[in-house]
Amino acid sequence: MKDDPYIYSEENMKYLRQSIVQVESGKVRQSDTAILVIDMQNDFVLPGAVLNVAGAQATIPAIQELIQLGRSKGWHIIHVIREHDASGCDVDPPRRHLFKDGKPGYCVPGTKGIEIVDGLKPQPGDIIIKKKRNSGFFKTDLDSTLRNLGVKTVIISGTQYPNCVRGTAVDALSYDYNTIVCTDACSAQTQAIAEANILDMKNMGITCIPLDEVKTRL
Predict the structure, then answer these.
(1) Kind and range of the H or E run holding 172
(2) Which domains does the chain have, with CATH numbers?
(3) 164: DSSP letter
C-alpha cells in the first residue's frame, strides 16, 4: 500500500492534511448530501470522441439542473473524473489497446479529452476526485473526503451506467451511504442498457429516481 503512488501522492496527502485541519477548526462547510458527477469529460461525452457514450451529451441539461439544485441547498458538488498517464501504464486491461500502436489513449493530462465538458465546468468550492478505475471509491480519497464533509447521502449523476455509475453506486452502498442514482442525469450507450442497470441497482437496494423526484424527496 505505501508504495502506491496514486494513494500516497503528495497532492493527495496535502489535500487530506488540509481537510483534517479544516474539519478540526470548523472551517469546512458541512452538509449531509453530495452530488457526484461521474466522468463528464470530453473523451466520454463529445460526439466522435474515443470513448463516446451515445446518451451522455443529452444528460447535460439534467445534470446542470441537479447541480443548480444542489448549490441552492448547500450540498457538496464533487466531480469524479478519469486521469491516465500517457503511457497507459495505469489503465485497466480492457482499454490498454487504446494507448498502443501510436494511439493517443484517453483522459490524458494536457489533452482536450480530459477536460470536463462545457456547461459542467467546476465552480469555486467544488471538489475534484481523480480515479483510475470504474468506481470513484477505488484507490481514491472519495470516502475520506465525504466523511470529512459530513456526507451521509450521495446523489450520483454522469456516465456511464454499466461501468462508472454502477461501480460508484455499488461501492457507495457498501460504505453505508444513502445512495441515490438520478436516472435522467445518467447515461448509457442505449436506453435498454440503462434500464437493465437501473433494474439491477434497484434490486441491490440503491434508490434510482428521476430528477423531479430528487427535488421532492430531499
Answers:
(1) helix 166-174
(2) 31-217 (3.40.50.850)
(3) I
- Amino acid making up residue 110: G
Name, in order, each residue with C-beta under 8 angstroms of 111's C-beta and a sequence gap of 6 or more. Answer: 104
How many Å apart are CA 17 and CA 56, to the nearest integer? Answer: 35
> Which amino acid makes up residue 17?
R
pTM summary value: 0.88
The whole-angstrom distance between residue 81's C-alpha and the CA centroid of its chain comes to 6
- Low-confidence stretches of the chain (pLDDT < 50) are 1-9, 11-13, 15-25
How confident is the model over 24-65, as pLDDT tens digits? 445 678 899 999 999 999 999 999 999 999 999 999 999 999
Distance CA 79, CA 121 (A): 9
Which residue blocks in 26-160 are alpha helix, DSSP H? 42-45, 60-73, 142-148
Dmax (CA) of the chain: 51
